[in-house]
Design goal:
217 residues; alpha+beta; ten-stranded antiparallel β-sheet
């Protein structure tokens, strides 16, 4: 084998090894970065009590989504919200225990077509996670979901309590229903809109129509 061929083969070998090391390093950095999500405390669980209902906001199934955490955006994260303990939980998909994210570093997350943020320090509102039902430049509608554990007699269950808050003009106002929302917009008090069969749906349709001209009839 000539010296030139040996040099070419050696150069290729060095290139391949270097490429493998670079990829391995990048992969290790990504794993290290993602591991920050799983350094919190173990999420609450209820293995020793019998109950009906669920303590998660909507479903016990973890759904793939994104989370902005400690100024970084993480994709492909499996999330769920424990509305009883107010924990945003993540699953690493490897059969390990679920982890509750640190609220101090949480910015927002989106999964199963739902967005959640954490609000604190607001008068007349609990410090906790809120679902964002509607948002635009001028207004945001938040939903607080609380699962209350009832243990009376032999019946033990998680019962849902919800409340709604509108952020507008720098203020937060609790909203009871669609009629109450329209009172905040007196110029639209005679609005006709298509009822959705739920408070969530009606409030969103009204705000869509006010700000985007949608949802009317």
């Amino acid at each position: 084998m000539s010296e030139d061929i040996k040099n070419v083969m050696y150069s290729r070998f060095i290139f391949i090894v270097s490429l493998i090391l670079v990829c391995a390093s990048a992969s290790a950095q990504e794993l290290s970065s993602r591991s920050l999500l799983f350094r919190g405390r173990v999420a609450s669980s209820y293995p020793y009590i019998k109950y009906t209902g669920i303590y998660y906001a909507y479903s016990p199934e973890y759904k793939e989504g994104i989370v902005k955490y400690n100024h970084k955006l993480y994709k492909g994260v499996y999330l769920n919200y424990n509305a009883h303990k107010d924990e945003m939980c993540v699953d690493n998909g490897q059969g390990m225990q679920k982890i509750a994210l640190n609220k101090k570093f949480f910015e927002y997350c989106v999964f199963d077509n739902m967005k959640f943020v954490y609000l604190s320090g607001i008068e007349k509102m609990d410090d906790r996670y809120y679902q964002v039902l509607f948002e635009c430049e001028d207004a945001v509608l938040y939903k607080k979901i609380y699962k209350h554990y009832e243990a009376r007699d032999v019946n033990k269950e998680f019962l849902e309590r919800v409340s709604y808050y509108l952020y507008k003009d720098g203020e937060y106002t609790q909203i009871r229903n669609a009629h109450h929302l329209l009172k905040i917009y007196p110029e639209h008090k005679k609005m006709r809109y298509k009822e959705q069969g739920s408070v969530d749906g009606d409030l969103v349709v009204i705000l869509d129509k006010i700000y985007n001209g949608e949802g009317g009839r």
